[in-house]
Amino acid sequence: MSISLERLRRCSIAVDLGASRTRVYLKRTGLIVDEPTVAAVNTRTGAVIAVGAFAERMTGRTPDHIRVVRPVAGGTVVDIAMAQRMLRLLLGNKLRRAWRRKPLPSAAVCVPHDADPLAQRAAMETLAGLGAKRVELVDTLIATAVGCGLPVERPEATMIVVCGAATTHVAVLSLGSIVAAERVPVGGETVDHAVIQHLRNAHALMLPTQAVRPLHLVLGDTALASLGAEVHGRDVATGLARSVQIDVEGVRNAIRTPLTGILDAISAVLRRCPPDLVADLADRGIMLAGGSAVLPGLDTLLREATGVPVNIADNPGVCAVEGLGAMLEGKVQPHVLSSAIT
Ligand SMILES: Nc1ncnc2c1ncn2[C@@H]1O[C@H](COP(=O)(O)OP(=O)(O)OP(=O)(O)O)[C@@H](O)[C@H]1O
């Protein structure tokens, strides 16, 4: 995936279509959309009745004729038509105004490092269907590294761990390009399922998916965690509503188990790197990005297992689209990404 920085500067919007959230950056304006990648459809009429946060709130609470769908899975657009309808509604007037200013615009879109030609094509068609005359594809890892403000242009190793909803990417970058990268199917959703499974086994309680995030917030705050937390769900046996006081340590362990997959990916990447680059990482450490970077205990787990410093990016969820935005605005010097972007 090699594209020209000059062509990127001609793009008017940058899009990051994630399995969990969709982010859009409009040139000279900034981030204009940061919403869940969700649409609610009336199956009788085929009409999209809600998108984004409103549609996400409907999950698990809809009557038979309303279906909540996610057009992106694992970083790949799986339903192009639905992704276009969702984007159109999320952008609304903002898109029309931008399109009016520049009638033949180009758009840039992030795609996973290992996206196959079909996945790349799906991302291009999604944006082309919105009226973009040219669509530039940029590796999500490069965009995220730029968005985190990492000195990727230097001849020394930088390790980035991008922990999203469905997947985590681990990569070592040097001289503006990716030396080694690995993807594991572990992310925020995997952790949510592990927590739900734990409460089912330990407390015979079925927890709604939307109740997991408040639990993460409690676990991430030592003072709140020491007070414990009460969760509401459905009793597995009786089917009735029930509340339980959770065992904080048990939930923490449940979260830690799937996260060990990320450690395996880090080891695999390090094994493929030349020794000089691995030595650099002892000082520079690991940069954690992606929405799940703030999962309680992830940074500590990585720090303890690798023995190197681990930093969480500021606004970890939006690093990719902000990095892409910086390329559109011409804030990235050509020498910075000389080998990844020609
Ligand atoms: N405060 C938080 N605590 C725990 N998890 C969080 C928090 N904020 C976001 N997440 C998790 O981050 C994930 C979303 O991350 P991100 O926005 O990077 O996803 P994405 O880019 O759509 O996913 P992918 O990269 O897999 O396509 C969700 O699974 C969500 O549960």
From TrEMBL:
GO CC aspect terms: cytoplasm
Presence of keyword Cytoplasm: yes
GO molecular function, one term: ATP binding
Main location: cytoplasm
InterPro entries assigned: ATPase_NBD, MreB, MreB_MamK-like
Keywords, alphabetical: ATP-binding, Cell shape, Cytoplasm, Nucleotide-binding
Positions of ATP binding: 165-167
Protein's cellular compartments: Cytoplasm
Protein's GO biological process: cell morphogenesis; regulation of cell shape
SUPFAM superfamilies xref list: Actin-like ATPase domain
The UniProt record lists the keyword Nucleotide-binding: yes
Family label: Belongs to the FtsA/MreB family.
Assembly mode: Forms polymers.
Entry function: Forms membrane-associated dynamic filaments that are essential for cell shape determination. Acts by regulating cell wall synthesis and cell elongation, and thus cell shape. A feedback loop between cell geometry and MreB localization may maintain elongated cell shape by targeting cell wall growth to regions of negative cell wall curvature.
Record protein name field: Cell shape-determining protein MreB
Protein's organism: Streptomyces himastatinicus ATCC 53653
Name of the gene this protein is made from: mreB
